[in-house]
Amino acid sequence: MSEDLQIIQGSKAEQYQALIPQIKGLLSGESDLIANLANLTAALKTQFRWLWVGFYLVKENELVLGPFQGPIACTRIQKGRGVCGTSWASASIIIVPDVEKFPGHIACSSFSKSEIVLPLLKAGEVWGVLDIDSSDYNQFDETDRQYLEEIVGLL
Q1: Pair 89, 104: CB distance under 8 Å
Q2: Distance, CA of 141 to CA of 122 (rounded, Å)
Q3: Residues facing residue 63 across a β-bridge
Q4: 104, 79 Cβ separation under 8 angstroms
Q5: Cα–Cα separations (whole angstroms), residue 129 to 54, 80, 94, 122
Q6: How many angstroms separate the Cα of 33 from the Cα of each of 71, 123, 145?
Q7: Which CATH number fits domain 12-152: 1.20.1050.10, 3.20.20.140, 3.30.450.40, 1.10.150.240?
C-alpha cells in the first residue's frame, strides 16, 4: 500500500482515472472497513478539495456518521430525510446542483451549495451512503456519477 497520494491536474475524468488505481492500492490488502472508508474519504478530499467527503452507515434503521473529511457533520439521519436519507430510501444516486432547492435538505454546513450522494449496496441492500458536498453550486455531474459509482463498487 502506498501512503502517498499523487495529485493529478487535468480534466475531471483524467483526475478520476489517475485516482482510481491509487484507491485500489489503498484498499488492497486491508480488510478493515473503517480503515478503508477513512482512506477513501482522505483520497477524494485531497484530490478534489471538496468541502466535505464522508460516509454514513446504516445502523438500527438510521444513517450514522462514519469516517469523513471536512467540517463537523450531522450525526444521525432518518431514512427518507434529506439528500442522504432519500438516497438510502430510493437506493439511487442523487445529484443536487443547489442544496437549498432540495425539499427537506438537512443543512449540516451553511457552506454546502451542491451535493452528490451514492448508496452503498450489498446484495441489493443499502448498508451506507457516500456523501460529498461542495461549496460551489453545480459541482457534480454525470462524470462524477460514473467514476464515484466505480469507486464505491471497490468497497
Answers
A1: no
A2: 24
A3: 58, 77
A4: no
A5: 8, 13, 11, 12
A6: 22, 17, 22
A7: 3.30.450.40
| 89: enclosing H helix or E strand | helix 82-90
pTM for the whole thing? 0.93
Strand partners, 69: 53
Q: What is the DSSP string of 3-65?
A: -------S-HHHHHHHHHHHHHHHHTT---HHHHHHHHHHHHHHHH--SEEEEEEEETTEEEE
Residue 9 is which amino acid? Q
Residues 120-139 have pLDDT tens digits of 999 999 999 999 999 999 99
Radius of gyration of the chain from Cα atoms? 15
User: How many other β-carbons are positioned within 10 Å of the β-carbon of residue 8?
Assistant: 14
Q: 77-110, pLDDT tens digit by residue?
A: 999 999 999 999 999 999 999 988 877 666 776 7
**What CA–CA distance (Å, rounded) separates 61 from 123?**
17
| In the chain, domain spans | 12-152
